[in-house]
Amino acid sequence: MANLITCAFAFKEGYQTSRQLNRSAGSYTTEMYLKNLLVALSSAKTNNPDDDVFLSVNIDIDPEWIKRFNSFNIKVRKMDFDSFVVPGEFQWALAFFKMCVLNTWVHEGNYERYLILDADTYTTHSYEDMWKEADFGILLTPLGHTFSHPDRETVRKDFVRLCPNEAKSLPITHFGGEYICGNLDDLKEYMDLNLELFEKIKATDFKVEDKIGDESLWSIAASILGKKINIIAATPYIFRFWTEDFYLISTVTVSNPVCIWHLPSEKETGFIRMYDYLLKHRHFPNVETSAKMFGILKAKRPVGTYTLANKINGKLRKWKIKK
Description:
12 strands
C-alpha cells in the first residue's frame, strides 16, 4: 500500500487527557475516545478506501472494540510507549505518544506516505490532492499565532532553551499537533530530529515549558529542517473549528472545502452523536448534515441597511420596475 492513515491512543493511569476535557484518563474517557477514534478513522477510510487505516494504541483494547473497528476496515495495532515519554504532570503528556507512533511507522518504512491525525478529526473528502502534495515535503498546520501570542511564545522559549544558536537566526512558527503528513524519506529525517530534540529535553531533566507539549517539538524541528525540507502549510486540507465559547466557523465546509475538520470541543457531543449515527446506519451523513451534528453553522454575512437596499433595488431592476 502506498499510504498509511493512523490515529494514536495512549492510556496511562492518572495522566491528563486534553485541555478541553480537563480530566484524568479513566474508563469514561477511554470509551469516549474510542468512539471519537472510530468516527475519525472510519470517516478517513470511507473517503480513502484504498489506503491502509490503523488505530495505534499502547494498551490492550477490549476484543469487542477491536471487532467494531475491524468491521469498518480499520486495523488495531499495539505499540510500546517507550520513547518520547514525559512526566505525568505535563499537561499534554499523553499526546507525546503520537510522536512515538509516527517514529515507529516511518522507520519500519512500509509505506510511501503517512498521515497521523488526532481523535477529534472528521474526514469529508478524499486525500488525493493531499497525498500528491506530500511528495514534496511535510505538511503541518500553522496556527496563525502572532509573535507575542502566549502559546507561540511558549514554543519560542523552548526553542531558545534547546537550540540557542538556531533560535538567533531562524523564525519559529507554531504548528498544531493534530495533523502531520509527509513522504517516507522526509518524515524519517523529521522524526530523527524530533528524537534528538527530545533527548535534549531529557538531559535538562524536563526543565522546559509544560503548556504546549508535543507541539513545541513539531514546531522546533520544522524550523530547523525548513532550509533542507519543504514544510508545507496544511491549510488547504484541514481546518480547526471551535464550537463553544470561542466560536470559529468558516466557509470551508462547502464553499472551499477542506477534507479534514478538527473539532476539539466536540469530543463529548458531536462525535458521540456521529458515532451513534454511524453504528445505526453504517455510513456517514452528507456534509451539510454532518456540519449541523458538529455544531458548525453556515457562515452568513450580516444584512445591513445598505445591503438590504441593494438587494431590493436589484430585484426591482430584474423585474423591470426600476431602471
